[in-house]
Specification:
By secondary structure, the protein is of the alpha+beta class. The chain is built from 7 helices and 5 strands, in the order βββαββαααααα. The protein is globular and about 55 Å long.
Length: 207
């Protein structure tokens, strides 16, 4: 099992909530006045957006440090669009990174040209499924035209993976298809085998 994170969200009043991380850090979440709130804190979706920016910025800085680059400053400007219908999930997130250092050209080259490591290479002990890895690498393509065309396509593939169905961005070998079919129809296979054995025994003892 990997790292376990814990948190606590407690209702305060109206549409205001307090959040506490497992390490004791606190944050206030509140809605707009139009929803009965006082606009006294973050929106929950704003925290998700900031989390995405923080996580990706962490990776950028770590990659540059491991490459022996001096980073003087790093920030990312985020812009996101949400669905109008409920659930109002993000449909687009645009991140614009800014990095200051001693050798801007080398920093840019490392960020844009260095191949991204595969999740199975980063965490070889996790046994990450290859089709899930393909989904991750599709979303991380540097060329936006090589990524998923929309968030809905990405979510569709995630749902297919979750329900043990084939995803659109991975080519399954014949053996993988057979293994997946066998795992999905294990109960049916056992039932057929049991029925065949039962029929054979019935025929044997009634000759």
């Amino acid at each position: 099992m990997g790292q376990v994170l814990k948190g606590l969200v407690r209702w305060q009043e109206a549409v205001q909530f307090s959040g506490e991380s497992g390490r004791g850090h606190n944050v206030t979440m509140d809605g707009p006045e139009s929803s009965g709130g006082q606009d006294a804190g973050f929106r929950p979706m704003e925290l998700i957006l900031l989390g995405v920016g923080g996580c990706t910025s962490f990776d950028v800085v770590e990659i540059l440090r491991k490459a022996k680059q001096t980073v003087n400053a790093c920030w990312v400007e985020l812009e996101a669009e949400r669905r109008e219908e409920v659930p109002q999930v993000f449909t687009r997130i645009h991140m614009k990174f800014f990095v200051e250092g001693e050798d801007p050209y080398e920093i840019k080259k490392l960020i844009l040209e260095r191949p991204l490591p595969l999740p199975r290479e980063v965490a070889p002990n996790r046994d990450i499924p290859r089709d899930l890895q393909a989904i991750c690498m599709k979303t991380l393509k540097r060329n936006k035209y090589e990524r998923y065309a929309s968030a809905s396509e990405f979510l569709t593939d995630l749902q297919h993976f979750r329900h043990d169905e084939e995803v659109s961005v991975y080519w399954y070998s014949g053996w993988e298809k057979l293994t997946r079919w066998r795992s999905r129809h294990a109960y049916l296979i056992l039932s057929l085998i049991s029925a065949a054995i039962g029929a054979g025994l019935f025929a044997l003892f009634n000759q």
